[in-house]
Design a protein that fits this description.
The complex is a heterodimer.
Chain A: E1 4-10, E2 13-19, H1 25-32, E3 51-54, E4 57-60, E5 73-75, H2 88-96, H3 105-118, H4 124-130, H5 142-159
Parallel strand pairs in A: 1-5
Antiparallel strand pairs in A: 1-2, 3-4, 3-5
Helix pairs in contact in A: 2-5
Chain B: E1 5-7, H1 12-20, E2 26-28, H2 34-39, E3 47-50, E4 60-63, E5 66-70, H3 75-79, H4 82-87, H5 89-95, H6 101-104, H7 109-114, H8 122-128, E6 132-137, E7 140-145, E8 150-152, E9 155-156, E10 163-169, E11 176-183, E12 194-202, E13 208-216, E14 223-224, H9 226-232, H10 239-252, H11 263-288
Helix pairs in contact in B: 5-8, 9-10, 10-11
The chains are: A alpha+beta, B alpha+beta.
The structure holds flavin-adenine dinucleotide and FE2/S2 (inorganic) cluster (FES) (2 copies).
Keywords (chain B): FAD, Flavoprotein, Oxidoreductase
Protein name (chain B): Xanthine dehydrogenase family protein subunit M
Domain FAD-binding PCMH-type (chain B): 1-174
């Protein structure tokens, strides 16, 4: 099978890879590039564990062909923290104990950050609808939702002019 | 998976040539049906033709007083288009009931229509809206009503080499209103047990002058229930008109029994939803009048 040569920007860095025409972006991120923070839960768009941001929009990377990423920018969980500095969403997940096994967590954090990037003041209902495509089998969504609300509050503080 | 090629043509002509050149090639819009079906082994197309690089296939344009929605436009982009969302709230809401935010950032109404699932959420709203499709193919372009596309579950009327270029919605006037509602076992991320779209025109006296009612998930394809529209036209939405609407809707349902609902439940729910969706459309028509 002919491999395709794809050039993208992943977490701010130019990245090239070879892929099969039917490989998904998730396959390439995990098995090709070694960015294994993005998880595969269902491979059918139902669980959100594979959530990444493609050209500014959050998508399920299991339902994107890797070839579609040609010339596009991809942001994954690995790019959320700045060096050792956790993003407020990550810190609040720790504070609230909003994870147990942690398998769903990268997807939730990428999705929650995508929400707060566009709406720093979401209601609880908005958060719950926004995260409806992310499934967690352990935590029981309440701690997750509270972590996102507190991260939003923290971000609003940070953004306030001194 | 067998060898499948990937192409991302930049013009409509290239896409037509690629599709016409290989009968098992499939257009790719958001991939939220196609990639799932390829992964499960249900289909093994020889080529996937990504339509998203074709200029003009993504985005919403005004055409006269109406709208043209590029076939590769994701559902969330419809919500972000303020004029479209104000003119056709029912269509925009129907498209934004599909899946999750992640899914809607990719999923398109054209893919929803061409996947030809009886339960496709945007389709009854589009049929009620009297929307049309611009189709490109080896013999040039043609425009057909949305209702002419689905033929049976998973089957469309598109000929080899043809694909949807855009979906067109007519102009709106004073006294127009549309709406879509579905019934699902949970609040998000499920498949419609029944879906109902309504599109009304109401005059200054509150009398119905035009009505289109379309149902999803109650037959092999979307159903435009002409008798349900006729039951409302001329009325002021009194009890007798709603009773006639309910009877017309039940008579038009030929649903299946499955884990989501029995035949009797689907028929009863279709009548309930049709009434509710008309009331929502009526409120919008009144607000516009
Ligand atoms: C988790 C999840 C939840 C979902 N929930 C819902 C839901 O609530 N309601 C609902 O209705 N659907 C739902 N779906 C199904 C799917 O998201 C929709 O049907 C969506 O609108 C498909 O659009 P797409 O652009 O992704 O289509 P694609 O997957 O790209 O294509 C679908 C089919 O149409 C063909 N096609 C695509 N574009 C064109 C074109 N321009 N011309 C001709 N043929 C074309 C393809 O070849 C393919 O056969 C869900 C899917 C997932 C994964
Ligand atoms: S792995 Fe992609 S949504 Fe579950
Ligand atoms: S913490 Fe285990 S699935 Fe969410």
């Amino acid at each position: 099978m002919n491999k395709l040569h794809i050039s993208t920007i992943i977490n701010g860095d130019a990245q090239e890879f070879l892929c099969d025409p039917t490989a998904t972006l998730l396959d390439v991120l995990r098995d090709g590039i070694g960015l294994t923070g993005t998880k595969e839960g269902c491979a059918s768009g139902d669980c959100g564990a594979c959530t990444v941001v493609l050209d500014g929009q959050m998508v399920c990377s299991c339902l994107v062909l890797a070839a579609e990423a040609q010339g596009r920018t991809v942001a994954t969980i690995e790019g959320v923290a700045e060096g050792a500095m956790l993003h407020p969403v990550q810190r609040q997940f720790l504070e609230h104990g909003a994870l147990q096994c942690g398998f769903c967590t990268p997807g939730f954090i990428v999705a929650a950050k995508a929400l707060l990037d566009r709406n720093p003041n979401p209601t609880e209902t908005e958060i719950r609808y926004w995260l409806a495509g992310n499934l967690c089998r352990c935590t029981g969504y309440d701690k997750i939702v509270r972590a996102v609300m507190d991260a939003a509050a923290e971000l609003r503080q940070e953004r306030m002019p001194a | 998976m067998t060898a499948t090629a990937y192409h991302a043509p930049e013009t409509i002509e290239q896409a037509v040539a690629l599709l016409a050149g290989n009968p098992s090639a499939r257009p790719l819009s958001g991939g939220t049906d196609l990639i799932v079906q390829m992964r499960s082994g249900r289909i093994a197309p020889a080529a996937v033709i990504d339509l998203k690089r074709i200029a003009g296939l993504s985005g919403v344009r005004r055409v006269g007083d109406g709208f043209a929605i590029g076939a590769a436009t994701p559902c969330t982009a419809l919500k972000d288009h303020a004029e479209l969302a104000a003119a056709w709230p029912g269509v925009v809401e129907a498209a934004n009931l599909i899946g999750s935010v992640q899914v809607r950032n990719r999923a398109t109404m054209a893919g929803n229509l061409c996947n030809a699932s009886p339960a496709a959420d945007s389709v009854p709203a589009l049929v009620a809206a009297n929307a049309t499709c611009l189709i490109a193919g080896p013999d040039g372009q043609r425009e057909v009503p949305v209702a002419a596309i689905p033929q049976a579950p998973g089957r469309t009327s598109l000929a080899p080499g043809e694909f949807l270029v855009e979906i067109r919605l007519p102009a709106r006037g004073v006294g127009d209103g549309d709406a879509y509602l579905r019934s699902i076992p949970r609040t998000e991320m499920d498949i419609a047990v029944v879906g109902a779209g309504a599109n009304l025109t109401v005059d200054a006296e509150g009398r119905c002058t035009a009505a289109r009612i379309a149902l999803g998930a109650v037959a092999p394809t979307v159903v435009l229930v002409a008798d349900a529209g006729a039951a409302l036209v001329g009325s002021r939405f009194d009890d007798a008109a709603f009773a006639a609407l309910a009877e017309a809707v039940k008579a038009a349902c030929h649903p299946i029994d499955d884990k989501r609902g029995t035949i009797a439940y689907r028929k009863a729910m279709a009548a309930v939803l049709a009434r509710r969706v008309v009331l929502t459309a009526l409120k919008r028509a009144g607000a516009a009048a």
